[in-house]
Fold Xylulose kinase.
Amino acid sequence: MSLYIGIDSGTQSTKGIALDLDSGAVLAEARAPHALITGLPAGHMEQHPQDWAAALDHVLEGMSAQLTADQRTRVRGIGISGQQHGFVPLDAGGAVIRPAKLWCDTSTARECDLLTKKLGGAKAVLRKTGLPFLPGYTAPKIFWLKRHEPRNYRRLRHVLLPHDYLNFHLTGNYFMEHGDASGTALMDVRRRAWSPAAIAAIDKNLADFLPPLSASHEAAGVLRPELARRFGFSSDVIVSAGGGDNMMGAIGTGNVAPGVVTASFGTSGTIYARAAKPVVDPDGEIAAFCSSDGGWLPLLCTMNVTTVTEHVRALFNQDHAAMDRAVAGTRPGADGLLLLPYLAGERTPNVPDGAGVLFGLNAANFSASHFARAAMEGATLGMNYGLRRLAALGVKAREIRVTGGGAKTAVWRQIMADVFGVPVVAMKEDEGAALGGALQAAWCHAIREGRIKTKLSDLAARIVAVDETTRTLPDKKHAARYRKLQTLQDQLGAAMRPLFTARAVG
Ligand SMILES: Nc1ncnc2c1ncn2[C@@H]1O[C@H](COP(=O)(O)OP(=O)(O)O)[C@@H](O)[C@H]1O
Ligand SMILES: O=C(CO)[C@@H](O)[C@H](O)COP(=O)(O)O
């Protein structure tokens, strides 16, 4: 029996599973929340990296307590998935200089404009790196530190991403793999190498602060002895390369070969499909990321999904079951109530100064149930904007595997199927990114042990399974209704843009 631990450090919590690779059974599970820093100016979204490390230790401790002593010694590897793009600035001794600016921080729109100009305009940026500079990505956050906090910038010696920081916490090594690194916007994603042009636009010395790029089957290192002792593990547990949460979600939903499309309904909304070659969107809306299994992962990301539904749920003091019943009691289209869900600004389309808009309020739809439906529908229509763009780039979905917190809800899955116009199905293991971490750790361990022909796609084919009881087919009448709503949401978004800018300036 060999056990592999998968960890997903998301925006709101850290989740872990311990997988018995022989039987495919999950033998332990644990979770620990971590909060955003409150009281920051609008658009600034930050967390303390030390909180992620504390949550990770708590989760590892919790799982260790659920395993027998024998099972603990059979843990062979740990694979970490983490929210993408966050900038963890470390000094020469590896201490965190300031909190991490996150993927959902929109305070760096000005830095994006400046970097784009330095590289010769939007087209030149796409030619040189494959990705535009967007506020969510890491590069403008580093430039922001240089421009706004020069004293902190002078102390900078190591740039890490959230999951790299957790790898560093576990192993003591500065390490980066292609998948998560592709979300920095400092890489030429076509060549899977750092982009000298993007780096020089910020600071020519920055290259010294970036770890060399490693392939995703390599190990970040071995678990530090004091942690191995603390969790009761043996002294040779490897920590695999890990990756961004979407890259690891791809592995954990079996999206490791062409033809599979995954949608994640977490704090953010993402839709992605693994590709054997880079897929660069000439409009820069679909992100040309690398995967964390040696390929590429064209991906759409919207910033407003379960945060939106959670706000509505909190406002009306409902638990998830009550909210689901409320939504089930209303008609598709929420009797004319439509939400443009840009509560935190938006990445796709790129509207960093955006805000939420409830459109079509009247006496008949002024109710908690209609607000709840409008929240689920608005977030899903927002994601469908990108699904259509993916289709235009040749990635056509015949069915969509859904994962993340929102995918647990049957009534929301029906909205997903109706909006996307294809069947959706959830996974047997709903912590897809954590499962991806466990599988990548098993792959990395096998290669390290000399079983070099081991394929991640074979491991995934054996372990990953859809939950057929959740398969949901689109309803033709509802799908037609949502096509009209989609047009209306697109028009509403376009019409509001000048007003968002006026509001930001005012
Ligand atoms: N049954 C459910 N219906 C809708 N949302 C849910 C449900 N269960 C959990 N969530 C929400 O999903 C989010 C967590 O999803 P997850 O994919 O773990 O997010 P992240 O990785 O961004 O932290 C939370 O906002 C949580 O409240
Ligand atoms: O920025 C992106 C993808 O580009 C986000 O998907 C983050 O990776 C955060 O993920 P969740 O916390 O929502 O899982």
